[in-house]
Automatic annotation (TrEMBL):
This is Wzz/FepE/Etk N-terminal domain-containing protein. The keyword Membrane applies. Keywords: Cell membrane, Coiled coil, Membrane, Transmembrane, Transmembrane helix. It comes from Streptomyces siamensis. It is a multi-pass membrane protein.
Length: 465
């Protein structure tokens, strides 16, 4: 196909003409998704929040998330839960932690029941807080802690001494006494600020005081992917794969669609194009097997990669096209003679056009007195896989009738070689196109219903799908 293959109109054409197949594949995908959900039990997820007071940098928060899912914390949580056959390593894939806004660590737990998911999240959060506090206590130097406490006591004593000095200063309202008391108040304020900063700098006073912000909420729904998500996802996946498969097959198709390509493959000239009404015809005996019925049931017996048939004119206009082709054919041959009308097996459009062409040639033998009449035509079906044309007898030439976009260059070249092997010259090519017939029919309809007697039976197999 050309670059228009991936246009939305092409996808719409696939959906319209292959909706049965796409529906069946979507149902199959939904069943596959349902079967997948049976192999994996439902999972439930919930989370517990841990508040980290104080000032924390981003890298410190990331470190805390790693600690929350460390093997030490998970081993303690598994020992506390006492779940049969569940160890800390088994919980590694079921527990997650991430840093949220406001110095909050969210610890999530996943289990096969809502109760177990809630218990897992709460227990891991509690073990994380306990381990973090113990870790801070273990990393604190006892000598530094003693020195810090001694410094704080000295600051308190100094503050009291400043208060005493301020009280014993000259209670008068002299300038010197006022300045002295002001300086003492500033010194006391500075000492109080220093104490506050010391308290904030103490790691044991803030970063060890992590708080679990309540128990985890019990989950009310399954964790994704849920059974419904798997069913819908399977149906959508199979639907998309079917559409992509149609587009890929169309892009890789080597079927000839243009008149010059077809003429070059057969090595002959194009005599013209004829229209075939897109009426539903009775199925031949060859098309009534089980596989043919299945193909018709799922809608793959109709080609999707050809444009919708255009509305044709009346029956008289279509007959004019056939008569013009017969006239050109008469001009191509030197004298009236018998010709084979070669139609590829499976090309139903070309078969109907060939029969109509034979009927027109028989009903209109000579349009003018100077003409010696149209050639006598006989329709034969040729298999494209193993082309075989009857040997030259009464017929001395071949007219190939086919529809565009149905055959590759190699298949058409094989038909041309089969004609040459049977000593038949390909005198011309006729392209048949499907059109949409109007509801109203002409009253004076020509002899279209008269089906010509075929000397060689048309043994087409398959369809143009």
């Amino acid at each position: 196909m050309n670059d228009d293959t991936i246009r939305l109109v092409t996808i719409g054409r696939i959906i319209r003409r292959r909706w049965r197949l796409l529906t069946i594949l979507a149902v199959v995908g939904a069943l596959v998704g349902y079967g997948t959900s049976l192999l994996f039990p439902p999972r439930y997820t919930t989370s517990a929040s841990v508040l980290l007071p104080g000032a924390w940098e981003e890298r410190e928060l990331l470190t805390q998330t790693e600690i929350a899912t460390s093997s030490v914390v998970l081993d303690h949580a598994a020992d506390t839960l006492h779940w049969t056959g569940i160890s800390g390593s088994d919980l590694r894939d079921e527990v997650g932690a991430k840093a949220a806004d406001g110095n909050i660590i969210k610890i999530s737990g996943t289990a096969d029941t809502p109760e177990r998911a809630q218990q897992l999240s709460d227990q891991v959060a509690q073990q994380f807080v306990t381990f973090a506090a113990r870790l801070v206590d273990d990393n604190t130097d006892p000598e530094e802690a003693a020195q810090l406490e001694e410094l704080q006591q000295m600051v308190v004593q100094t503050s009291r001494r400043i208060t005493d000095l301020a009280d014993s200063a000259d209670p008068g309202q002299t300038v010197e006494s006022v300045q002295t008391r002001t300086e003492l108040e500033k010194l006391r304020t500075s000492l109080q600020e220093a104490i506050t900063k010391l308290d904030q700098a103490d790691p044991a006073s803030n970063k060890a005081n992590m708080v679990v912000m309540g128990p985890a909420a019990r989950p009310t729904g399954e964790a994704p992917p849920t059974r419904m998500q798997l069913v819908v996802g399977g149906a959508l996946l199979f639907f998309l794969l079917a559409v992509i498969g149609h587009l890929t097959a169309a892009r890789m198709s080597r079927r000839l669609r243009t008149q010059p390509e077809i003429a070059a493959a057969l090595g002959s000239a194009l005599l013209g194009t004829v229209d075939v009404p897109g009426e539903r015809t009775a199925h031949r005996p060859e098309d009534r097997g089980p596989w043919a019925r299945i193909r018709r049931l799922i809608g793959v017996d109709v080609r999707w990669d050809i444009p919708a048939p255009q509305t044709s004119g009346d029956e008289a206009g279509r007959q004019i096209r056939y008569r013009r082709v017969c006239a050109r054919l008469r001009d191509e041959v030197s004298a009236p003679r018998r010709l084979l009308v070669v139609v590829p097996d499976g090309d139903e459009i070309a078969r109907r056009a060939a029969e109509q062409l034979v009927a027109v040639a028989e009903s209109d033998p000579s349009p003018s007195s100077s003409s010696e009449g149209h050639p006598m035509l006989r329709v034969v079906g040729v298999s494209v896989s193993r082309p075989m044309v009857p040997d030259r007898g009464d017929e001395s030439g071949a007219l190939v009738v086919l529809s565009a976009g149905s055959w590759t260059a190699g298949e058409l070249a094989g038909i041309a070689e089969a004609c040459a092997d049977a000593d038949h010259e390909v005198v011309g090519i006729v392209l048949a196109g499907l059109v949409q017939a109007r509801d109203t029919r002409s009253a004076g309809r020509p002899r279209e219903a008269a089906t010509p007697v075929l000397a060689v039976g048309y043994d087409a197999k398959g369809s143009s799908g």
